[in-house]
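In the laboratory, one determines a bound structure by crystallizing the protein with its ligand and collecting diffraction data. In a computational setting the workflow is compressed into a single prediction: the sequence and the ligand go in, and a structural description comes out. We illustrate the idea with copper (II) ion.
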Amino acid sequence: MIDPIILQRGSDWRAQAEVFDEIFFVFLALGTLVGTIVVAYTLWNVYKYRDDGGEPREDFDAPTVGELPTGQGGPKAKKLFLSFGLSAIVVISLVVYAYGLLLYVEEGPDANEESDIEILVTGYQFGWEYEYPNGHTTRGELVVPADHRVNLDVTSTDVWHNFGSSELRIKSDAIPGETSEVWFAVSSETVEEQGGEATYRVECFELCGQGHSAMKGQITALPQDEWEEWYESTGGDSENSSNVEGGVSVDDTASVSHAAVGGVPA
Ligand SMILES: [Cu+2]
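The predicted complex, in structure-token form:
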């Protein structure tokens, strides 16, 4: 049912990690290039204008302190405009380029009510609870299908937490009484590369109490058909549903594993 939509739209999606890696690489390459040119040009001038012990040439036009190197439109002015011009072009293009990509990271691919998966993520001391559209809830592990945009509505029941996964490059405040949104998508190619199941570590990024460092979880991406099979098996499931107010100790978060989600291949 959703397959045709995925095939049409899925191919040009980019994961946040991919976008950030590209930005990092472009800035690193440009920084290295510009740095090399500047340092080389400086060293060349240091050598060219070194004090070789001889008398200064008569026609040498040495700058005085406080003088702008305009040279009345002569060669010095050209150099000045060239360096300002090049710097401006580099800086402005980088700002436009990076801002455009960051807008994509914020907004994500076009929303599609039919195929997007909405998950309510609730942080508590100390763990994460996930509620699926069918009402099924799990703790510790979030299971999602590949090639779907997953929208997370992140909130908290007690204190401020911060839901995030470094590998997926997502991070979002979890604040009581408020909901913040973040999206991600895992491609089926990635799932295949990782042996039919892609897993990502989830952590809390806001110091929230004694069990903060144990507030870990996992996002598991499965191929579409396997996920659907699993998801259907959760319908009306009340065994795993739990009341967040019930309070869970640090130990409980660690015990949530694949055992909690039937039908997931080990
Ligand atoms: Cu926390």
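Confidence is low (pLDDT under 50) at residues 1-10, 237-266. Keep in mind that any predicted model is a hypothesis to be tested, not a measurement.
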